[in-house]
Amino acid sequence: MNNNTNDGFYGLGIAPGILGVLEKLGFKEPTPIQRKAIPFAVEGKDIVGIAQTGTGKTIAFGIPLIQRLAQLKGRGLVLVPTRELAIQVDETLKKFTHIFSMETVVLIGGESMTLQVMQLRKNPRILVATPGRLIDHVGQHRVRLDDVHTLVLDEADRMLDMGFAPQIERILKLIPKDRQTMLFSATMPAKITSIAAAHMKLPVRTEIAPQGTTAEGISQEIFVVQKEHKSKLLGKLLEQYSGSVLLFTRTKRGARKVTETLKKMRQHAAEIHADRSLNQRKEALEGFKSGRFRVLVATDIAARGIDVTGIELVINYDLPDDPENYVHRIGRTGRAGRAGHAISLATPDQGSDVKSIEKIIRKNIPISKHPSVPDEIFSYGPSAARSSQEHGRGNPRGRNSFKPRRSSHGHGRN
Question: pTM for the full model?
Fold first, then answer.
């Protein structure tokens, strides 16, 4: 196995046909997770891949999956937590499957069962599915899993967070034990460790960064602001930056309200959350990718389901309920080695929430001020002391006082 970093994708055991596709697509250097996982995965070894979001995990499991399917009979199954992620994984796999005339199918809720049944009749070699919809098809005898020889659990921690553990256990019992299993996750909670111990054969663990580590190249800052001043500050921040913006709210209702506010500001904005139909979510995501919408407003359902390069800024309009989701949210910017920036708006009573986030990411997030809104500090906890002592909160010219900053990215529209 050649680990010479100057060889690009050569020397990782990838078949020439797939190397040709990588070259045509402009992929020159593998990401760390690709470099570590692919050589073991193409040999059929079980893999536990731990890497922060935005590091190229789909190609890390996709190339070995397709290459082994080209050599063996049977099928591959990729389980993912959300509809959006299923669609995007399928889009990535299709860039390579065509050279082997290999069919794929996406099995997700919110789309026609009849259409999915028609696609299943074509005997696809790769199933990309959310656990609930796959169980629906299995229960109605529309798909069998006894010929699956390669299983991928993508974003495994997110699937467990969403309550899919019973469905995953049921699916695992339907797949032959003599199989390859690749498990990819941003974190490694105890439940995933137990799944690996019970259902995998001496898995190779490839950990690219400590759990909870944010991707390199993402700068971060927090503004402490009263709730009623958030929309005013948002407007000022959007004037300060020129690129595309992914904005997170805590609730579906909040997403709707912020989207309406943005439209009143004459911003091209769309929303993506569980109350939107699959077609509406697809339209919003495609419009964001194409630049038709500058701002995409999302709840955490989209935190790991949006794979869009060139997002200049992530704004946490609301802090996440689960501090680990902070990592997944801000990982939507700064992808594939690019620089990115993340801004969070925290209310004065959220000092302990910020401290929980900082504990996970293992760093302090600088606190900034903006002249358009009243100066605030956290009302309790260590973060309150930090905000006043370390960041010059008592000084009107504090270290992180507002300085207009110009985008170096220039994506999207002003």
Answer: 0.66
